[in-house]
Backbone:
């Protein structure tokens, strides 16, 4: 995974999302939509962290389960019917990233972002770019582009293996 | 790169392909001054534009070529092959430089002195000292065309101050831009008058965006329609209908913008053929027809290379050297014919040549040598099967690898490319006569018709193109599912179909196994090597098909049965490509949004086939199951019979080919008029009836009816039945002892006795019902003639020869005649009948089909009548299509009588009267 560039969090507006007691922040710059639980079609043989495809106003969007990607229990398994997802366009393709709940939009400055603790699991290091301290809890800043890049590179390795 | 140069490149590329075509035409028709004028103007335009843009290298080449062309035009020099070759080389050079400019933005390094020297030598060799009559356009002269343009297209702006120096340094100066535009207007005006049509150059992505938007509009419309249908709100009906229609028109219109004439993919071919004839020393003409046939841009791109490759192949391997052709009694010049046309929602492209054809034996040897087939297969394969080997990977028939077609790209690549776009390729070749390829391709790839099916509570779309049929497995039919080496297979009309169920389809296949291309190996490793639970189930033989359906899918050469839970309807779907994070799934071709708004996955038949290795297994499984005895030759002898139940009697059978269609009627639509039962069907009253008065309940529900129709007399009849049992491919061995009214006789199918229905009986009855009362009431079979006179049943010693290519008719007619007391010999075509003649065989009467391969019945009788031992025999024509003209023609050729194939009474009667006449003549 060394080919994925590790970025540091930038200043700007962030949307706070949570999966159970884990809090995350995603830059609002790339967010097209925030959607509620939506009717999805599962895609057999796809990766575990892909929930399926859904129709968002005539566009087909692939839904990524963030909890599963981070090694938490899968959102669908937890029966989280009130889940929220953020729709982000990555390299011309629309993805919906499934979280649990959605919170406020807050302003975060670069100097308020702390580096990730070394002890954090590898799966978090690959997609997280820093930590921000809110009064009541810590928030992990996620780079969703990196999450997609990571899934794509594993797809490619499978395809290469087949060829 | 600036816009000007980009535009220049686009325009020049277009001009160059035109030039290629025109030059080939010019070579064939050197005196055509119009053509010459056009070529000259094109070259001149390229030269002139280069001057503006500061492309000196390109300009020099174009200039030198133009000089030569000018001498042609003035008539000072004749068009010769050498000179044409020189011109072609110049165009290639221009093309190369243009391509380089397109890639790098600048002219490539190097010079073209060699080519220019040759061109100049040619020009000066003709005692023309000055460099052509046209003033060479060098930088200093750049004003000249510009000024012309100014005057031709008066502009309200100030005339541009022509500044020469910046041309090479900075081609984008505003002045130049304007000159260029004016010049272009001028050219466009000329082009318009020439072509008499207006064209607009549009970026492809603009169109693609438009198409995508329309696709979404279509989907939204579908959703809206569905919502309104549910809401019962009538007020929106009218505007919605209008919207519906407009959207459909819009969709059609937008799709048309993607359509291009197939001629665009062919434009390079004349040049390629021309060059190849030079290289190979052959004489070949390329004939093209149907260039205007339009198809989708994307499809066009996909078939361009395969077509080019096949034409190269024809030139290289197909057409012989002129002397060989003469020796073989063919014209010196070979012909390759390209033909495109529409047929049933497809585009058909035929590529045929009159070359040496393919030698099936040589191909068989080669395939054996390359290890593509084994010795057993080599022995048992028919010629047609042997020929199919050329589509296999790693096959090349050329003795020596030439630079023409031996590039390691074989027909397998051609086939793969065509199958990738849902097309098929078929080949027919007669050794010594020529080869014909038939390519069938879909019109468009963007919107397809798909069957929506359900697997594990989830809907999927399967392209309808790939679906051959749907089969429902009834609980009693379980035995049709068998296990071969733990793989479930289904026996469908004697063929073995590998089955794929949802568990298998959606289970992760071991990568090692997936990579393994050897069938035998994969069959062996499965038993112990496959870790997923579905395989274990299969091992225990618990393949539960329950109440499911089998969708028979064809993906190129491979067939498989996909087991599904339910079938929904057929929808026109817009294919959207799947996200790159799903690219490793391999079994999906894309996704789409259905009318109800749900996003669903589109199954990829080719992907599934290659994932489960069913592609090459078919034949092997077939052989394994049948013990190598299912060869094509024997299959040919079989006739598909539809077996059905009606009433309490034995099952009945009718040759499938004789049934026009299967139709269900509502009981309430069926009416009784007098004694007959009729139903309104396709604007006519269709008489209905039962086989042998076996009754079925027609008071309620749906009534299944087999519609029998006679194309010639337009008689039709509906046979009401209880249920269709099966369609069986079987050899017809008819016993006529059970023959009675409406039944020709009996045969055994799968160990059961079934009655074979005499459809003429019912067709005649339908005619009788309308035209005459009781015309055929109770026609008895042999024993009594039409007038009720008892005639001797035995016709001992009378021998008859039946010549018919259809196994069904041979097998049906011979028992009928035998039952009537004739000694019968059958022959499958005229050629083998002639060989019987040559062996000295003699008959009393000959019955011959008209439509037969190799030699028609007309040719056969003419030949026999002309000079043979059979020349005085009665010849009876058997035919299913009779017009008075046909009959007249048949009599002219020498037939004694004409009878309908299916009318056995007439057959027996005619045989008797013909033989009686013969006796009279003899005595």
Residues:
């Amino acid at each position: 995974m060394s080919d994925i560039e590790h970025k540091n969090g930038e200043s700007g507006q962030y949307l706070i999302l949570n999966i159970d007691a884990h809090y995350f922040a995603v830059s609002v710059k790339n967010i097209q939509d925030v959607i509620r639980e939506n009717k999805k079609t599962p895609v057999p043989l796809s990766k575990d962290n892909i929930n399926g495809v859904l129709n968002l106003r005539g566009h087909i969007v692939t839904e990524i389960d963030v909890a599963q990607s981070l090694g938490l229990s899968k959102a669908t398994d937890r029966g989280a019917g009130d889940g929220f997802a953020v729709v982000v366009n990555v390299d011309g393709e629309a993805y919906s990233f499934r979280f649990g709940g959605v919170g406020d939009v807050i302003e975060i400055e670069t100097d308020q972002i702390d580096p990730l603790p070394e002890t954090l699991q590898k799966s978090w290091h690959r997609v997280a770019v820093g930590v921000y301290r809110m009064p009541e809890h810590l928030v992990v800043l996620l780079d969703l582009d990196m999450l997609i890049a990571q899934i794509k590179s594993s797809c490619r390795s499978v395809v290469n293996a087949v060829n | 790169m600036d816009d000007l140069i980009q535009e220049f490149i686009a325009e020049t590329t277009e001009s160059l392909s035109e030039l290629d075509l025109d030059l080939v035409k010019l070579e064939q028709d050197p005196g055509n001054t119009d053509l010459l004028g056009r070529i000259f103007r094109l070259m001149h335009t390229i030269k002139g534009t280069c001057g503006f843009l500061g492309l000196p290298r390109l300009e020099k080449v174009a200039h030198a070529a133009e000089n030569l062309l000018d001498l042609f035009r003035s008539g000072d020099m004749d068009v010769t092959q050498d000179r044409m070759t020189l011109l072609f080389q110049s165009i290639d050079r221009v093309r190369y430089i243009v391509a380089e400019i397109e890639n790098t933005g600048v002219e490539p390094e190097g010079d073209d002195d060699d080519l220019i020297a040759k061109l100049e030598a040619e020009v000066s060799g003709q005692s023309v000292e000055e460099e052509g009559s046209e003033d060479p356009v060098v930088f200093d002269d750049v004003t000249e065309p510009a000024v012309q343009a100014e005057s031709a297209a008066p502009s309200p702006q100030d005339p541009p101050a022509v500044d020469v120096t910046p041309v090479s340094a900075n081609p984008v100066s505003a002045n130049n831009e304007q000159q260029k535009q004016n010049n272009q207007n001028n050219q466009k005006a000329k082009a318009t008058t020439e072509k008499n049509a207006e064209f607009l150059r549009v970026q492809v992505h603009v169109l693609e965006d438009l198409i995508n938007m329309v696709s979404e509009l279509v989907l939204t419309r579908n959703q809206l329609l569905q919502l309104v249908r549910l809401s019962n709100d009538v007020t929106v009906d009218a505007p919605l209908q209008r919207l519906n229609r407009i959207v459909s028109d819009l969709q059609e219109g937008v799709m048309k913008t993607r359509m291009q004439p197939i001629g665009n993919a062919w434009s390079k071919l004349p040049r390629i053929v021309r060059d190849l004839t030079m290289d190979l020393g052959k004489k070949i003409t390329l004939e093209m027809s149907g260039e205007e046939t339009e198809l989708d841009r994307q499809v066009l791109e996909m078939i361009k290379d395969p077509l080019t490759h096949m034409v190269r192949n024809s030139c290289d391997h197909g057409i012989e050297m002129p002397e060989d052709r003469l020796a073989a009694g063919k014209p010196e010049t070979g012909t390759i014919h390209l033909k495109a046309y529409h047929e049933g929602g497809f585009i058909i492209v035929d590529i045929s040549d009159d070359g040496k054809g393919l030698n099936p034996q040589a191909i068989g040897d080669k395939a054996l040598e390359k290890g593509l087939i084994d010795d057993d297969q080599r022995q048992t394969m028919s010629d047609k099967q042997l020929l199919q080997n050329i589509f296999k990977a790693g096959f090349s028939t050329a003795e020596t690898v030439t630079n023409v077609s031996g590039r390691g790209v074989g027909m397998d690549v051609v086939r793969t490319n065509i199958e990738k776009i849902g097309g098929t390729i078929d080949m027919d070749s007669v050794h010594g006569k020529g080869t014909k390829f038939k390519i069938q391709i879909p019109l468009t790839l963007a919107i397809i018709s798909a069957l929506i099916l359900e697997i594990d509570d989830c809907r999927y779309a399967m392209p309808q193109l790939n679906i051959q049929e749907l089969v429902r497995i009834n609980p009693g039919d379980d035995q049709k599912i068998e296990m071969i080496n733990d793989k479930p297979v289904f026996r469908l009309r004697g063929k073995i179909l590998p089955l794929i169920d949802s568990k298998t389809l959606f289970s992760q296949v071991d990568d090692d196994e997936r990579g393994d291309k050897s069938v035998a190996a994969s069959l062996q490793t499965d038993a112990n090597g496959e870790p997923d639970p579905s395989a274990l189930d299969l091992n225990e033989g618990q393949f539960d098909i329950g109440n499911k359906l089998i969708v028979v899918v064809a993906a190129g050469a491979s067939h498989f049965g996909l087991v599904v839970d339910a079938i929904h309807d057929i929808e026109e779907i817009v294919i959207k490509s799947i996200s790159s994070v799903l690219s490793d799934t391999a079994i999906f071709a894309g996704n789409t949004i259905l009318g109800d708004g749900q996003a669903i996955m589109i199954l990829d038949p080719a992907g599934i086939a290659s994932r489960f290795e069913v592609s090459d297994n078919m034949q092997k499984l077939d052989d394994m199951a049948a013990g190598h005895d299912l060869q094509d030759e024997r299959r040919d002898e079989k006739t598909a019979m539809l077996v059905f139940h009606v009433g309490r009697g034995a099952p009945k059978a009718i040759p499938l080919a004789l049934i026009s269609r299967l139709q269900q009627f509502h009981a309430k639509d069926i009416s009784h008029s007098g004694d007959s039962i009729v139903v309104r069907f396709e604007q006519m009253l269709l008489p209905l009836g039962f086989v042998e008065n076996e009754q079925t309940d027609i008071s309620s529900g749906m009534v299944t009816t087999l519609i029998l129709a006679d194309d010639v007399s337009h008689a039709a009849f509906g046979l009401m039945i209880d249920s269709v049992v099966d369609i069986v491919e079987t050899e017809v061995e008819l016993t006529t002892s059970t023959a009675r009214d409406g039944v020709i006789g009996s045969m055994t199918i799968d160990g059961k006795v079934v009655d074979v229905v005499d459809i003429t009986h019912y067709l005649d009855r339908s005619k009788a019902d309308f035209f005459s009362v009781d015309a055929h009431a109770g026609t008895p079979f042999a024993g009594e003639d039409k007038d009720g006179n008892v005639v001797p049943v035995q016709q001992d010693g009378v021998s008859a020869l039946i010549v018919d290519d259809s196994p069904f008719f041979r097998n049906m007619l011979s028992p009928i005649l035998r039952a009537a007391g004739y000694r019968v010999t059958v022959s499958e075509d005229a050629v083998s009948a002639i060989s019987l003649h040559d062996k000295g065989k003699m008959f009393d009467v000959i019955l011959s089909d008209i439509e037969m391969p190799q030699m028609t019945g007309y040719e056969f009788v003419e030949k026999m009548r002309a000079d043979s031992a059979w020349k005085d025999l009665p010849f009876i024509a058997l035919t299913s299509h009779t017009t008075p003209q046909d009959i007249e023609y048949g009599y002219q050729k020498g037939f004694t009588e004409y009878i309908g194939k299916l009318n056995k009474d007439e057959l027996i009667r005619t045989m008797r009267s013909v033989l009686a006449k013969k006796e009279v003549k003899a005595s």
Notes: Chain A touches chain B through 30 residues (CB under 8 Å). The radius of gyration of chain A is 15 Å. Chain A has a mean pLDDT of 81. The longest strand of chain A covers residues 12-19.
